[in-house]
Amino acid sequence: VSAASAVLVIAAADSSGGAGLTRDAQTLGELHVALCCAVTAVTVQTDTELRATHQVPAQVVRAQIRAALDSGQIGAIKIGMLGTAATVRAVAESLPPRERLPIVLDPVLRASSGGTLLERDAVALLRELLLPRVSLVTPNIVEAAALLGDEATRDSMIGEASLRSQLQRLLALGAAAVLIKGGHRGEGEEVIDTLLAHGGPPVRIAVPRVCGTRRGTGCSLSSVIAARLAAGDSLIDACTVAQRYVAEALRAEATGAERPSLR
Ligand code: PLP
């Protein structure tokens, strides 16, 4: 294990434990990966309702990021819920160059209960300031459409051509790579995530679909990707391991089996 194998998680606490920093800490704990954190907000949630959000002042977020980077332990950064435009700006201005540390952005916009996790006026700023600084952005199809200003489609059966167009347009916004998650796409037998990086063709990453629900799957996925990038995996390997982790976690939740571990 290299000295710089910890993940800096920039995200919000979810009091219900189902998502956010709470889920990230659980996930990284299962992988035996250390984390530092920069808490962006404290949320009050149940599994079905976002009751309140209390934003941490942007200068405190900045100071947490600086302290974590000063530790010399950080091997990758994962960004989750940011909440406001001020926090988006603070984070964008605090990040090291992505050539130095892999940076994974889960563009969290809403809770599955429907509550808003990124204020409307902050979405444009996230697109302009943050996307050009990250190694990978991991939207689901709803988030991809929102980031691109595309018509929010209720049709989860997004076609292959529109998917490719979205990947290319997100890449053009400045992320070094884009992973559009397929969990919300239709009801096929497989979940297909699609990865596009500069200079390469789109890569399909597939896993058998598990019928089950679990909160915070996007949080877990991006945390595992960051942990694997910190350990030196390629982007494709990191995304593949993370997809498998989430599928196993869903299966464990559905069957009440042991929590998954990474092998
Ligand atoms: N709450 C927080 C603090 C989050 O960061 C996220 C997602 O990243 C969510 C809720 C959304 O999770 P879910 O879709 O399970 O509600």
Give a nutshell description of this structure.
The chain is 38% helix and 21% strand.
Molecular structure report:
This protein has eight helices and nine strands. It is of the alpha/beta class and 263 residues long. A six-stranded mixed beta sheet has the order 3-2-1-4-5-6. A three-stranded antiparallel beta sheet has the order 7-8-9, sandwiched between helices. β8 and β9 (203-208) form a beta hairpin. The two termini are 15 Å apart. The mean pLDDT is 93. Pyridoxal-5'-phosphate is lined by residues 11-12, 14, 18-20, 43, 45, 80-81, 106, 108, 111-113, 117, 215-216, 218-219. Pyridoxal-5'-phosphate binds next to β1, β2 and α7.
Layout of secondary structure:
Elements: E1 6-14, H1 20-30, E2 35-45, E3 50-55, H2 58-70, E4 74-79, H3 85-94, E5 103-105, H4 120-130, E6 136-137, H5 141-148, H6 160-172, E7 177-180, E8 190-197, E9 203-208, H7 217-230, H8 235-255
Residues 11-12, 14, 18-20, 43, 45, 80-81, 106, 108, 111-113, 117, 215-216, 218-219 line the site of pyridoxal-5'-phosphate.
